[in-house]
Write a structure and sequence with these properties.
This protein is mostly helical. It contains 13 helices and five strands. A hairpin with a 2-residue loop joins strand 3 and strand 4. Helix 7 runs antiparallel to helix 9 and helix 7 crosses helix 11. The longest helix has 20 residues. It is globular. The N terminus is likely disordered.
Length: 323
């Protein structure tokens, strides 16, 4: 929409008259998509909507207003025949439902056709992301070197993930100024999904490692300096920048391999650190609402996916069998 805006002589942004009229005609479907701020969510939702659009034979956006519950059920059944994971199918239907919620709110349609559509529940009571045992967590946390800047940085980075359950994107966004004291306790100011901000007390063990890393790094730290940044950059030579989410994933995988965990948990990644933090806290009697607060979940049902206390393998009836 940038081409619809011009600057006047006082550098104030104003809409031209024809641009104003064109914006009045923007379809609600496009308005909904443009209003999703998180680019990853927007990309995923767009892909899901496009798949539904292709399946339903929709060629014009206005045709979404003719969608019925039968169309959504047929799409769900199609996805199940493709043997997609239950969580994937639920996400795709959730994307369609979010679109129609917006269309209902703007009076573009009379009802949400996703309402009343039964969604697959298999696997919904427990997440599939692996969680590390306490022993495995200790191994990966001590795998980085204690004598190099990279090793010291990576120890601090892994500690933030394991003790606080941050998402990759949240870890990447951390700046020096995001470590602040509240009521006498050091906290992390975490910028989560949908730009929600929540404050997480820093675990003393993680704080010690972060302090060691900051003392070891010779770069001048300004408040807006990224907390975790590259130690070398052979391409642009720029070091004052955030690590990328892909770099975080590779760091976790590297030390999982070094610690011998990768052979035990093949699909380990940064999200496994998040699952480990939640699972460990629940196993040590943390209140689930406090774990919800730690993870920044808007719905406690999401937090419950990490609650595996009822399926602890050590408590299985298998070990009560004797022959």
């Amino acid at each position: 929409m940038k081409d619809l805006i011009q600057h006047n002589s006082k550098s104030q942004q104003q809409l031209q008259r024809d641009a104003f009229e064109r914006l009045e005609d923007v379809l609600s479907e496009l308005e909904w998509l443009s209003n999703i701020h998180n680019k990853n969510t927007r990309r995923a939702y767009l892909k899901d909507i496009q798949q539904f659009q292709q399946f339903s034979g929709i060629t014009e956006l206005e045709a979404f207003r003719d969608v019925t519950r039968a169309h959504v059920i047929a799409f769900r059944d199609y996805l199940q025949r493709q043997e997609l994971a239950a969580a994937t199918i639920r996400r795709k239907i959730a994307a369609i439902s979010a679109l129609f919620d917006h269309l209902c709110n703007t009076n573009a349609v009379r009802y949400n056709p996703c309402a009343g559509v039964k969604r697959p529940t298999e696997g919904a009571n427990e997440g599939k992301t692996p969680a590390l045992s306490s022993e495995q967590a200790k191994k990966i946390l001590t795998a980085p070197s204690e004598d190099t800047l990279k090793g010291i940085r990576d120890r601090a980075l892994l500690a933030i993930l394991l003790y606080h359950g941050l998402r990759r994107e949240e870890l990447c966004k951390l700046k020096i100024k995001d470590i602040e004291t509240r009521q006498g306790i050091p906290h992390l100011c975490v910028k989560g999904k949908r730009d929600r901000i929540h404050y997480v007390p820093i675990h003393p063990a993680a704080l010690r490692l972060v302090d060691t890393y900051r003392a070891f790094d010779c770069l001048i730290e300004e408040p807006d300096t990224p907390l975790f940044r590259p130690v070398r950059n052979n391409t642009s030579k720029i070091l004052i920048k955030h690590l990328s989410p892909d770099a975080i994933y590779k760091i976790v995988r590297f030390y999982a391999l070094k610690a011998g965990i990768l052979s035990e948990i093949l699909n380990i990644g940064a999200h496994a650190m998040r699952a480990t933090a939640a699972t460990n806290a629940l196993e040590h009697a943390a209140d689930i609402t406090k774990v919800q607060e730690l993870l920044g979940h808007s719905n406690i049902s999401t937090t419950k996916l990490y609650d595996r206390r009822s399926s602890n393998p050590e408590d299985s009836a298998v070990f009560k069998i004797e022959f």
